[in-house]
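Q: What would this chain look like folded?
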Amino acid sequence: MLKRRHFIMTSAAMFSAPIAMPAFAQPSNWDTWDAQVTPLGYDPATSNPWGIHERFLPRLVEANPGLTPGDIHVDAVARYLYQIREGGTAMRYGVAIGRGDLYEPGTYTIARKVRWPSWTPTANMIRRNPEEYEQYADGVPGGPTNPLGSRALYLYVGNRDTYLRIHGTPQPWSIGSRASSGCVRMVMAHIIDLYEEVEIGSTAWLYPASNGVTAAS
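A: My prediction, written as structure tokens:
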């Protein structure tokens, strides 16, 4: 549980740029897409058509004293995201994080939140892997197969967009792994729920993937 965890505050001066997005998703499709990615009779605590490990399903847990309600804490070791609630509790979700050194721990502000965002690979992504990303250089419209999935929370440092996101994924089997180009991935149905609870201006703490947070189920 979150109560037993030892969170270490960290600073970050350098950030990679895995994702950038123009906004050209069509609002007329949003409700239809939400229904497509949300299981029939959806219960966050039990619905699992994705076959992810049971520990990655949403759970209400006890929070450490003194944490700010509304803030997000990402335990990169255990692959958990916690959203702090009032009354000393937190909602815990399973996540995937960035591969290798693409994951960037640090303290961020959630400056934007977008429903069914579009996606464009950054120049760094295209340079690292042109065969995979160059074909998408002009961007991909929002939708159930878009790499950012159903929702995205944009992480900033001051007024600077880091191009890091907390977002849904059309690859739910990646939850619990190191799979992304730097962002934090969630099951689409789970981030739909989280999105409604997150306010612009909240802080997101991304802790180191090693030597910082002790993993515990």
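Confidence is low (pLDDT under 50) at residues 1-23, 211-217.
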